[in-house]
Design brief:
With about 180 residues, this protein is mainly beta. The chain has two helices and nine strands; from the N terminus they run E-E-H-E-E-E-E-E-H-E-E. Strands 3, 4, 5, 6, 7, 8 and 9 form a seven-stranded antiparallel sheet that branches. The termini are far apart.
Length: about 180
């Protein structure tokens, strides 16, 4: 970050917390942990002295990992599983002699599809998204291990979530006859 990227805004002292950057000198040599919103104060928690390797690593919070999975038109919801979307990761496997489906990673964020991250624009193709062959998801460490293991022992698919506040735990597994 460089001071020239910012401008000073006057606010009453009572509405500005002690963790808000107040002087341009405080940001020299620091990096953003994610997207800084224009016209909003910069909080110290959004800054780091560690230089991100790339834009994707900068968006991975502590305790989370980015994991790529292979997808096709069906498993990527016809390509609608694009950066910024929320999905449930479904694992279909043979268990106890019948096909079973499990939600193994609920409410995962799609970080990129075919190496295109959120906010990337394709010239002349605003509304039409291509069907990706890989999708990178943001998952907890435990969920990322679960997904990697499941990929070796069955099929993975993404289920697109709506813009909701559904925080219900995934239900029990579903079998072929259910």
């Amino acid at each position: 970050l460089e001071p020239r990227m910012f401008h000073r805004v006057r606010k009453p002292e009572i509405v500005v917390s002690a963790d808000i950057i107040r002087d341009f000198e405080e940001i020299k040599g620091l990096y953003s942990r994610g997207v800084l919103v224009a016209e909003q104060p910069v909080h110290r928690d959004f800054l780091t002295s560690l230089q991100p390797v790339n834009a994707l690593t900068a968006s991975i919070p502590s305790g989370y990992r980015a994991i790529a999975i292979s997808v096709d038109a069906t498993s990527s919801v016809e390509g609608w599983a694009q950066p910024g979307a929320r999905v449930d990761v479904i694992w279909v496997t043979k268990d106890f002699g019948s096909q079973m489906a499990y939600v193994i990673a609920p409410n995962a964020k799609v970080l990129s599809a075919n190496k295109k991250a959120e906010g990337a624009r394709i010239e002349g193709k605003e509304a039409e998204a291509e069907v990706p062959t890989t999708v990178t998801l943001l998952l907890s460490v435990r969920d990322s291990l679960r997904v990697r293991l499941a990929a070796l022992n069955g099929r993975l698919a993404l289920v697109l979530r709506g813009i909701d506040s559904d925080t219900a735990k995934p239900g029990s597994p579903i079998s072929e006859g259910a």
